[in-house]
Each structure stands twice: as structure tokens, then as C-alpha cells.
Amino acid sequence: MNAAVTATDPRALATFREIFEAGRPLTYVRSPEEQRISSLLHDAAKRFFPARVPLWTWSLTNGMRSDSSGKDAGKEAKTPGGALEFAAAHKGPGIFHLKDFHEAMREPGVRRRLRDLYEECFDTGKFIVISSPIRFIPDDLSRNLAYVELSVPDLTELLAFLEDDAKRVAAGGGSVDPNPETRTQIALALLGLTLDEARHAIRRALAQSKTLDCRSIPLLLEEKRMLVNRTGLIQFIPTDLGLEDIGGLEYLKNWVVERRKLFAQRDTISGDIVPKGLLVMGISGCGKSLSAKAIASCFGLPLYRIDMTEIYSGRHGAAEGAFVEACRMLEQIAPAVCWFDEIEMGITSQETAGEQGRMFAFFLTWMQEKARGLFVTATANRIDLLPAEMIRKGRFDEVFFVDLPLDDERVDIFRVHLRRRGADPSKFNLERLVRFTKGWTGAEVEQCVVTAFTAARLQDRELDDEDLLNATASVVPLSKTMKEQVDHIRAWAYDRAVRASPREFAR
Q: Nearest Cα to 156, choosing from 353, 9, 339?
């Protein structure tokens, strides 16, 4: 058999090459992408044999037809049994693609004939490929079938798809940016989609503009958002926040900026130094969730959050199976930032022999082995619930503790929230608010700004210093109402995490 395969071939094509080279007569491919399977088999028929072999495709509606000439094999090959007899009687090598044949395999006679063909087709160059969107492999055939879960197209396959689709787009009066870097960025935005979904995404983008280029990427990502939201297990989190929208946390922000360069080089550097993820723990309301959103913006990647409530709801089967499915889907749609919010509430090792224990064990392994293009940001409040296995070096690149903001950080937070609401921070005397906001969280500073704006709007006037000062009187900080819990969190993290700010909040 011809080994004409290169390092740049798609992963799916290489899989078929291995099967045909190994001489496996029967293959079961699970995938809803019939057209893509046909295209891959067409390429295989041309490339993986000493001379091109015929490709025949069967379906219950159309019977058996030649892929190259469209020739019909006749009425005798219309039934499942007739299709198998056609393959058995075929002179010389060939590939026989049987669509949705899982239903036919429920018949004992069909299963028996498939087992016969396993022996008859061995070393004859004849290969029967069964495709179906569902998995149905009877026990009596399980040792005869090579089983393939056809994953979504990889970057190489998407680039080839873009090359071909560019001709169709041009014929329709549009164009695809010819720059290789631009096409790579477009293909990266389409990762995680099937070819049909990618085609719909491109058409959607071209409906807005006749040119597919870097400006089309947000529209392509919208198709991906629709895909993940459809599952219910993963949520696309839109964000227009950057690191500049975080007040303070300078150590954390500097770390993210430094790692951004390494993450961008993930395909060309050693896997040991590619950033894997970050665990941000600390007091509620101090910017952990905001940090996750800002990291995605800084990396220039979409942000997805695994919904642990949905995982445990039972609507998607057993929680551990749903969790594994969600993690696998995230790998398919990489590059992306994956956000585990309040990770201590959803993934713990407390029930080592139960479902949560198995989920925890899978998560630890997954963090080590996941795709390079996936950066995990986890946030936690109840940090004392986090097991040592999760916070040790090697799981996450770094573990940061977000404390109550310092005096100058609270001033920065005031500036951020004033700017976001259209006010000029330089017009306010924010330094005098420092002593009135001692022990406040960032969320409490934001609420103070909202309260002040509300008071000003109710009187139909612009915001002034007095509004901000008066608003401080209505806030009772968490550090007072939950003093014992806050002190416990800070004491626990004192020697266990890197501080996100340059200096420690006064204890």
C-alpha cells in the first residue's frame, strides 16, 4: 500500500491511512459529517493505494453508486444484504462506504454476512466503511470492527477547506483574504466546528461583508457561541474588559502579560513552558471573576465557562460523563480560555470513591494532558476546601491570592468605575475617600459609585464629590460583617499562594 501521507495531512486522513495500511476490512466511523467522510475516503482512494481504487457509496435511499462516475450498481445492491453481496463479488480492491448501516446491523443475517466478509476481504484490498451519527456495535461484531470517533476538523483540514471554499466565495462575488496569517486566524476561529457549521459561519460573515478577513472573526466566533450554548454544559462569556479595567493586582496583571507571549508561541515551543492555567483564590468581590474575563481579552481568545450546576442537574446523564463531555468539547473549540468559577464547590476530592472523586481524578489528569491551546482560569472563595493535589505546582502555573484592595488600589478601582460610566476621574478628589473605604472590596467600591450616580441622576445633575462621600455611609464592608471568615481566608492563604498585589493589606 502506498504510504503517501505527509506531516501536513489532516489528523482524520491519517487515521484512515493507518486503518487501510493495517488491512482492517471492516471500519465503523461515528460522525454526523457524511459529506466529510466521503471526501476523506475519496482522498484515501487516490493516495493510499498503488493505483487509485474505486469508491462506492451506499444508502438506503440511493442504493450503491460509484463515487467517480455516479454509476448505479443496480437494484440488487439496493438492500443492505445486496450491498454486502456487491462488495463480496467486486473484482479487485475497493472502498465501500455504507451510510447509516447501523440499522441494518440489527438483523442477524446482516451481522453474519459482515463477519464472513471480514474473512473474505482480508488482504484483498477491499474495505467496508460503515458511518453513522450514533454508535451501535453488536457484541458479535465488536472484535471485527475498527472503531473511529471522527473528531472535528483540525487546523490543517480547516485551512484546506478555506482554500477550497475561497473558490466558491469568489464565484459568488465575494473574496477571502489571501494572506496566510489571516487565513490561519480565520481557521483558528473555526476550530471546534464541523465543516458544515464552518460553512454556515462563513456565509453568515459574508452576509455582513463581501470579504472574509480578520474583521470577520467576531462573526465566526458567534457561530461557535451558538454551538456551545446549544449543549447547555458550556457558556460563552462575552467580555469587553481588559487588564486596564482591573484596579490594582499588579503582580497578577504582570504575570498574565508575560505569559501571553509564551501562549501565543504554544505551537513552536516546548510543552513544558506553555502556560496551562491559573488559580485565583481570595475574598469574594475582590476581582477574581473580573480577572478571568480580562485574561481572555489579554490573550485575544473567547472565554467559556463550564456550568457545574448544569453538569449536576441530571439533564445530561451522569454528572461525571457530562463533565468529561464538556472538557472534551472545550479541547475541540480551542484556542480558548476556560473558566471554572468557584471550583471548590463543583470539583472536590471529599468523596474519593464516589462520583465527585472520579470527576476530581479526571480533572487532575485532564489538566496535565489537555490541548495546548486551552488556558484554564479557575476561581475559588472557599479556599480551605481545595485539596492539596489541586494547588500543588504543576496543576496550575501559579496560584494567586486576591486580598482586600490597598489604599491606592481602591483609588484605582474608583477611577475604573467612574470611567466606565462616562465620568472623568481627574475631576474628583478620590484620595479623601481612602479613609472612609478601609477594608472594602472592589465590588463594594463599585456599588458606592453606582449609588452616587443614582443619587445624582435622581436630582438631574452631574455627579460630584459629595455624592461619592455620602454613598460611603451606606456601605457596611464584608470585612466587618464576615470578619471571622475573611480573617480565616487570609490566614489560610498567607503561606500557600502568591499575592496578586505588591504589598499586603494591613491585618
A: 9
Same domain, residue pair 179 and 209 = yes
For the chain, what is the domain count?
Answer: 4
C-alpha cell at 302: 473567547
Q: Are residues 199 and 53 in the same domain?
A: no
Burial 83-121 (b: 16+ CB within 10 A, else e): bbebbeebeebbbbbbbbbbebbeeeebbebbeebbeeb
Tell me phi and psi for residue 149, to 5 degrees: -95, 105
Angle at 18 between CA 372 and CA 73, to 5 degrees: 125
Q: Which domain holds residue 97?
A: 11-149
Are 138 and 63 found together in one domain? yes
pTM, two decimal places: 0.72
The pairing of beta strand 303-306 with beta strand 234-237: antiparallel
Q: How far apart are CA 120 and CA 332, in angstroms?
A: 38
Residues 309, 198 share a domain: no
- Tell me, yes or no, whether 142 lies in a domain: yes
Query: Same structural domain for residues 265 and 206?
Result: no
Largest CA distance in the chain: 92
Are 393 and 430 found together in one domain?
no
The answer to the question of residue 2 being in a domain is: no
**Is residue 186 in some structural domain?**
yes
Q: What mean pLDDT do residues 457-462 have?
A: 93
Tens digit of each residue's pLDDT (9 = 90 or more) over 199-242: 988 998 898 888 899 888 888 888 778 877 777 888 888 887 88
Query: Whole-angstrom Cα distance, residue 212 to residue 201?
Result: 11
- The partner residues of 504 in beta bridges, in order of sequence, read none
What letter does residue 151 receive in the DSSP assignment?
Answer: P
| pLDDT tens readout for residues 391-441 | 777 778 888 888 888 889 899 999 999 998 999 999 999 999 988 999 899
Compute the distance between CA of residue 433 and CA of residue 451 in angstroms, rounded to an integer: 15
For residue range 325-365, list pLDDT tens digits in order: 888 888 888 888 999 888 887 776 555 557 777 888 888 88
User: Same structural domain for residues 378 and 260?
Assistant: yes
pLDDT, one tens digit per residue, over 265-280 is 887 888 788 898 998 8
Identity at 178, one-letter amino acid code: P
Cα–Cα–Cα angle for 503, 504, 506, rounded to 5 degrees: 130
The domain boundary, picked from 402, 420, 446, lies at: 402
